[in-house]
């Protein structure tokens, strides 16, 4: 064990670097939750994120078409008025005929969608420029295609493996029981693999959406546990005055002046941060987003309990 490094062996500069990295990853994780919310919410026609949105995203839905799922969900914000959404949905329900398309639907698409969904945009999205192209999206929604899942799988594996590796490299410097450390190192990788595997399973069998949500959640929890514990162990034992002083190599007199400068700076930026946060909350959007996130967690737990037959309620 002679060569095992611990956080106490790490220099202050290196701790700053490590902490900024870990904080960026934690922030990135929060944004990725937001991304999941905005991409999947509302696919089932009801606002907010639920397990049925996940099922539709991966497995598809016999009653939903790709066009309806898109304008109920991630594309809703591009429509200038909600009435236009009803016009498009009515058109799909009434058999998606060309005569109605030309008069009622095409002008809406022209105005709100073609900026991105046309070959001219260069965005490689399904084009909505002609009747034939749009009508293809009004067939039953068969969920995520294998090529799109393969594309996202390779991005996730290459990207997330790096994140888990570097966060794990720092986490091994923590001082906790060795069995707990070994277990915690493995969990994020296992749950990342299970999550990706569950996409393909959900595509075939909708019930695997629960496995998908559970393994994704477990990855988030274990990753953030590693981040929080590393930050805690990296800084808290070193917070003692002596070690801070020797780290900065200053005399007590200088220390006092420096400390008061730092303290004033901290208080001022704290005040800025609080007023910024208040402004954000006053914007209501963020408040609603947090409410929905909370509701999602309860919904997931509830539907897992309710949908399992009594004799199979394992959790
Ligand atoms: C700002 C650019 C932009 C605008 C405007 C836009 N979209 Fe999209 N659309 C996208 C992107 C990007 C995706 C891919 C999103 C994804 O895969 O999650 C997408 C995906 C879709 C899909 C899903 C395609 C599939 O493979 O199932 C449909 C359908 C769609 N949009 C319809 C529309 C409609 C209808 C409008 C107009 C109301 C619209 N979009 C406006 C960028 C845009």
How would you describe this structure to a colleague?
With 315 residues, the protein is mostly helical. The protein has 2 domains: 1-60 and 145-239, no CATH class; 62-141, no CATH class. Helix content is 70%, strand content 2%. It has 12 helices and 2 strands. The protein has helices at residues 12-40, 51-59, 66-72, 82-93, 98-112, 131-136, 146-171, 178-204, 209-235, 241-248, 252-282, 285-307, and strands at residues 61-65, 140-141. Strands 1-2 form a two-stranded antiparallel sheet. It is globular. The two termini are 39 Å apart. The model has no long low-confidence stretch (mean pLDDT 85). The structure holds heme C (HEC).
What is the count of helical runs? 12
Low-confidence stretches: none
Question: What proportion strand?
Answer: under 5%
What's the mean pLDDT score? 85
N- to C-terminal separation?
A: 39 Å
Query: What is the 3D form?
Result: globular
Largest sheet entry: 2 strands, antiparallel
Instruction: Please provide the ordered H/E string of secondary-structure elements.
Output: HHEHHHHEHHHHHH
Number of strands: 2
Task: Summarize the entry for a quick read.
By secondary structure, the chain is mainly alpha-helical. The chain has two domains: 1-60 and 145-239, no CATH class; 62-141, no CATH class.
């Amino acid at each position: 064990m002679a060569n095992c490094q611990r956080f106490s062996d790490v220099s202050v500069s290196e701790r700053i670097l490590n902490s900024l990295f870990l904080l960026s990853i934690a922030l990135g994780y929060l944004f990725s939750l937001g991304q999941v919310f905005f991409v999947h919410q509302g696919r089932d026609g009801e606002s907010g994120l639920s397990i049925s949105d996940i099922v539709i995203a991966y497995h598809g839905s016999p009653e939903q078409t790709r066009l309806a799922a898109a304008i109920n969900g991630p594309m809703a914000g591009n429509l200038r008025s909600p009435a236009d959404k009803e016009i498009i949905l009515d058109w799909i329900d009434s058999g998606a005929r060309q005569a109605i398309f030309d008069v009622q639907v095409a002008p809406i698409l022209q105005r709100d969608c073609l900026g991105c969904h046309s070959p001219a945009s260069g965005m490689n999205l399904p084009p909505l420029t002609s009747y034939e192209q749009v009508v293809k999206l009004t067939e039953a929604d068969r969920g995520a295609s294998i090529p799109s899942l393969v594309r996202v799988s390779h991005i996730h594996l290459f990207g997330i493996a790096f994140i888990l590796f570097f966060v794990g490299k720092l986490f091994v410097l923590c001082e906790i029981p060795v069995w707990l450390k070994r277990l915690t190192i493995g969990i994020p990788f296992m749950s990342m693999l299970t999550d990706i595997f569950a996409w393909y399973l959900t595509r075939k069998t909708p019930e695997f959406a629960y496995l998908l949500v559970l393994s994704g959640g477990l990855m988030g929890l274990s990753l953030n546990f590693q981040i929080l514990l590393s930050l805690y162990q990296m800084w808290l034992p070193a917070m003692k005055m002596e070690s801070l002083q020797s780290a900065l190599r200053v005399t007590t007199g200088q220390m006092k002046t420096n400390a008061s400068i730092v303290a004033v700076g901290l208080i001022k930026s704290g005040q800025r941060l609080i007023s910024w946060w208040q402004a954000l909350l006053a914007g209501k959007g963020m408040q609603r987003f947090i409410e929905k996130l909370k509701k999602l967690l309860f919904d997931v737990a509830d539907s897992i309990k309710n949908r399992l037959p009594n004799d199979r309620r394992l959790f």
